[in-house]
Every structure is written in structure tokens, then in C-alpha cells.
Amino acid sequence: MLKLSQIALLIALMAMPGIGWAQNEGQDKLDEAASLKIEAKTPDELKKVIRLCEEAIKAGLDEGNKALADQVLAAAAFQRAQMMVQQLPRVANNPAAVRRLRDETMADLDKALGANPKLVEALLLKTRLEAIPGGNRENAIKSVTKAIELLSDKPVDQATAYLLRAGLQESTEDKLSDLQKAIEADSTNSDAWQARVAVLLTNNKLEEAIVDASKLLEKDPNNMFALEAAVRALFQLKKFDEAITLLTTRIEKTPKNGPIYRARARAYIAKEDVEKALEDVNKAIELDPKDAESMLLRSRLYFSKGEVEKASRDVSDALAIAPDAVDGVAMRSLVASQEGRFADAITDLEMLVRFDPSNTGWIIQLGSLYQADKRPRKAIKLFDELLKQHPQEWRAFRVRGDAKLSINDHSGAIADYEDALKIIEKMDKKQIEEEDIDYSGLLNNLAWVLSTSPQDAVRDGKRSLELGLKACEATEYKQAHIVSTLAACYAETGDFENARKWSAKAVELGAEEDSEQLEQLKKELENYKADKPWREEQKTEENNKPLNSGGVIET
Q1: For residue 541, is pLDDT > 60?
Q2: Cβ pair 368, 399 in contact under 8 A
């Protein structure tokens, strides 16, 4: 935009005698352009200013007027480009219109920079336009790099330009380098600090992220992003005590901040300190009685304590406040399942799977609910589809194996259990722990069907004993139903002495556990006393009652 001082200079030049206007054949057009520029308010008016300047330059101007024409042209072209950019949101849903508008705007910016290559604002706007779909990332980087060079004496603006370039970089190191330069240019630029912390977190540079987040908190103690980032990094590093200390310090400064109490509650949960977690989440709800997120967290805590009624009440209250809360629907399903209301639980899970068909955890949970509700064929159909897309999903093999076992497809169940085992055994110990894999349960199920199936063709005493011993070792011979399986394995191999020994141990453990299977365990022992192997065949009668949700979800 032409500055008032430049307009005054133009008027003064026009009034001076002997200036030699006759030698400036483009003078009239320049005069008209300068006059119109003062009043121009629309893209079309500015387009006319640009045209007049171009015609004036082409017609001929002396050095001074040429410089003035370039200034007017650059200002008009840049102003027009700004107006055009403001129209982009209006046509955002029309790719062709976006492309045309962008191309026209870029043409204006090129004219502005052609007349004034040092127009930083035009370079930065061009950078942003090149960064959107249809642009050229390399050209964007060239433009912003030029702007950075021109802003060497304006560190605050240069920091913003570095931040812009960081967003264009492909490599993590280049991003971090630009963000560091932005911080060095302007240490008060919180956006640069936050962007650097975000990049560090994304690339698992957790210790560095904590250092930067701490520095940002020193500069701005109220910066919630920095606090949340630091806590997140500490959680990933399993430094829960440090997270609690950091959050406690924050609570002391702002004792009425409910989300901070909720964050500390999560840290206590990670430390398995349910009571302290409850204290904090209760405080968060006290500070904000409509805090649905805290209500859902408290419902999970009550659920973990076996207080299902309280958990159900919190879920209902939370969903009354936030009906679309996905976590709330998931928790409601869990509560319904615990209360034996499988149809209600299935309805919620089917809704969640429709919401996000890529969530394998929900799909597997839904299949497990089908199985629990005596709908094994629905479970099998669901897992058939899931395994086409995720052939390494061991949990799907495991639960489908259970479903096949319940419909008397013993060979299919064995195949699924074996496939699940193959996948798990390729994992390292850390991965098994992180995924909370019930390895002993899988070993036990496979050992049981291999040793107790009435189908002669599928039984394998040697293999079942191998698996049964592994399952017992994994549980330190302390779980009645797993020790019972070991007894069945020995019986299948004809070693009834060991069968009786471990069956008696299973009965003893069952009595200590007050197991619902105690009578079953006693019957198995009597069988072994008669030197008879145990045989078991499951025949689940399919539950064909209609579900409100309409049935199986196709993945």
C-alpha cells in the first residue's frame, strides 16, 4: 500500500517546475494510478491500478518516477492479493475455485515481488499459499528463507518466519533446527516453544520435551500446553512420582483448577493408588459439578473397586451432560456387561464400532460380548472379517477359538489357538507385558481342548502336557483351573498318578479360592481315581433373540 509520505512526495514532485515531465511518456498513467490507489477499495479497482502502473513503466518513466511506479504497483498488487486470500474460505469446498483463486493471488504476489523483491509480507503470504494443497513446498521454503534473510534486523518477526519454515520441513532435525533458531531469535515466542515440544513428543524425544516444557513453564507458569506436555512425557517414561510432584506444585498455585486434579488422579491410577485418585477426582467434580470427563474417570475407579452401582450412576450422569462422549458409551457397555446385561452392552459396542470401524479393540470386545451372550456364530463371523484385514491380530484368533470351541468345532478352535500362540511367541517380553497378554490363559485353553476333546482325531497328549506345564509355570501353580488342566494333560498321556496328584491340588486351590468350579474339580478327581481321562464337549445353544442394534457389524 502506498504510504502517505510517498503520496505527498508524488504531489510535491508533480508541482516542481523543470522536472522534465515531457520526457516521461507514462507520467499521465502513473498520475492516474497514484490517484486511484488512494481511493481503491475493491480487487477490480486495484487491478486497474496495477495495469496503469505497468502501462506507465512500459511507456517510459525517468528513474525517480520508475521507482515510484514500482512502489505503487507493489503496494496495489500486495493489497489485492490480501483481498483475494480472504475469499479462500468462501470457496473452500470447491477445489477448482480454490485453485483459480490461488493462481490469481499468486500472480498478484509475483507482480508485487517483481516490483519490490524485498517486500517481506508478500514473501510470507506466498509461502503460506505454496504450503496449501496444490502448492509447491520447495517454492514455499525458498520464499520464507528469503524473508528470513530480509528480517535479520527484526528478530521478533524473523522468529515467526522461522516457525513458518519449520512447519514446511520434512525431516525432524530440520524442524527442530528451525524451531531452535526461532527461539534464539525471540525467546518469548511461546508458539515456537510449544511447536518444539510437540515435535519432540511426536518423535519420542521425551527427556528433551520435558526440558523444553519446563523452560516454557518457567517463562509462563500458566501455560497449560507446557504442563500437559511435561506430564504426558513423564507418563510415557513411567515417572509418575515426578508427574505428581509437578502437578502438586501447580495445584498449590491454582487450587481451584479441576483439570489439574484430574491429571494428578491419572498419575495416581498409574501408581495403582485408587484411593488418592478418588480424592483428586472427587475434588475435580466438587469444583465443577458438570465435569463429565472426571465423572467418567471416577466411574472407572469405582468399577475397578467392584462398586458397579456407583460406576453406573457416574456413567449415567456423565452421559446426561455429554451424550456423545465416546468414552462414556464404552464405559456404559462395560458396566452393562459386568451386570450381565449383554444385550445392552452389545448395543453400545455395535454403535461404537459403527462410529470407528478401524478400532480393533472395540471389535474384539464386541466379539467377546457376542460370545458371552451365547452368540458364538456372530462372534465367528465378526472375527472372520477382522482377520482378513488384520491377520496378525492374536486376540481375534484367541476369542474366535473360544467361540469355535463352544459350537463343538474343536479342530477349528485348536487351529485358532495355535495361530494366536505363534504370533505371541514372536513378541518380546516387554511387548507381551505392554499389551497385557493373557499368555497363561491361552496356553491353558489349548492344553485343555487337546487333552479333553471327545474327538479322537484332535487330541494330542504330548502337546497338551507341554502347554499345560508352561501355563502352570507362568501362574506358579497357584490357579485351580490351570492346575486342573495339567491334571487332564497327565491323564491323557496315561500318567494317572500325576493326574490324581495335580487334580487333588486343583481341588485344594479351588476350596481356598471358593471357586464356582469346585464341584467340577471334585468330579474330575474321581474320574482320575478310576484311571479314566476327562472328556468335555461344549454345546452352546445359539441365542437368537433380536438385538436392538440390528446384529453383526461388518468391518
Answers
A1: yes
A2: yes
The 10 Å CB-count burial string (b at 16+, else e) for 247-273 is: beebbeeeeebbbbbbbbbbbbbbeeb
pLDDT of residue 330: 95
For 183-203, the pLDDT digits (tens) are 999 999 999 999 999 999 999
Distances from the Cα of 496 to the Cα of 1, 314, 395, 409, 529, angstroms:
98, 53, 34, 28, 8
CA distance 210 to 234: 8
Distance CA 308, CA 402 (A): 27
For the beta carbon of residue 86, count every other beta carbon within 10 angstroms. Answer: 10
- CA dist., res. 135 & res. 454, Å (int): 68
**For range 490-517, the mean pLDDT:** 95
Q: Which residues contact 63 (CB under 8 A, 6 or more apart)?
A: none
C-alpha cell at 535: 472328556
75 Cβ contact list (under 8 Å, min separation 6):
1, 2, 37, 112
| Per-residue pLDDT tens over the stretch 264-295 | 999 999 999 999 999 999 999 999 999 999 99
**392/389 Cα distance (integer angstroms):** 9
Residue 459 grid cell? 487330541
Closest CA to 165 of 145, 185, 149, 193: 145
Going 66 to 67 to 71 to 74, the CA torsion angle's sign is positive
Which pLDDT score is estimated for 4?
47
Burial group, residue 21, by CB count within 10 angstroms (0-12, 13-18, 19+): middle
CA distance 554 to 353: 9
CA 382 to chain centre: 25
Contact, 456 vs 424, CB < 8 A?
no
Q: For the chain, how far is it from start to end, CA to CA, in angstroms?
A: 57
pLDDT, tens only, 455-489: 999 999 999 999 999 999 999 999 999 999 999 99
Region 202-222 average pLDDT: 91
Say if residues 21 and 65 touch (Cβ distance below 8 Å).
no
233 neighbors 197 (Cβ within 8 angstroms) = no
